[in-house]
Design goal:
Number of strands: 0
Structural class: mainly alpha
Largest sheet: none
Distance between the termini: 58 Å
Strand content: under 5%
Radius of gyration: 19 Å
Helix content: over 70%
Shape: elongated
Number of helices: 10
Length: about 200
């Protein structure tokens, strides 16, 4: 049975999959998670609803995978030889316009996650945990290079600091996150908390 499902899943080409994910993100921006339906995705992408369910199982998995697919490359692809270089490279992957669109999208999804345990579970399994594991490897390299002490208490909070800056920029400053803001935040807050010299 699993082999049959796997064979069915493989019929969607990478190009078609990218097209579907793009449509899902467009719909999310237009109507939000709660109003997004598999019927709407099927209509927008000229797919059958049965195909969508067979491929993704349901809306939470489809949305989480669309978000993951939209990310510009893998964290594990980045290795500049320094933690500062790695963090700045990750920040520079999205231009300010894309960052602003994604910030608005993520704010809406964070709200939806609180009222939807299935979406939270899909986000954790398909997006958060894989990204966290890649990020942990990036940080372990910095520790192995001797840039950060292995017992530095701020190590457990790097992601919290970065996500916090991204998420609260609009709330506190009434401005979208930008590359300039995030890079200056990394240099002023994240790296000093880790004991990494910025100069």
């Amino acid at each position: 049975m699993a082999e049959v499902a796997s064979a069915r899943r493989s019929r969607i080409t990478p190009e078609r999959e990218a097209e579907l994910y793009s449509a899902v993100l467009d719909l999310l921006r237009e109507v939000g998670y709660d109003a997004l339906t598999m019927d709407a995705v099927a209509a927008r992408t000229r797919s059958s609803k049965a195909t969508l369910y067979r491929q993704w199982g349901g809306k939470p998995e489809l949305v989480a995978k669309a978000i993951r697919h939209n990310k510009p490359g893998s964290i594990s692809d980045v290795d500049t030889g320094s933690l500062r270089g790695d963090l700045h490279t990750l920040t520079s992957r999205e231009d300010d316009c894309t960052m602003q669109q994604n910030a608005a999208l993520m704010r809406g999804l964070f709200m939806a996650v609180h009222g939807n345990p299935d979406l939270l579970a899909a986000f954790k399994e398909l997006l958060i945990e894989p990204e966290m594991e890649e990020f942990r490897r990036l940080v372990r390299r910095a520790v192995d290079r001797g840039e950060v002490r292995a017992d530095c208490p701020a190590l457990d909070y790097i992601v919290h600091m970065l996500v916090g800056a991204f998420a609260t920029r609009t709330l506190i400053d009434d401005q979208p996150p930008t590359q300039t803001f995030l890079m200056s935040y990394i240099d002023a807050v994240v790296l000093p908390a880790l004991g990494v010299p910025v100069n």
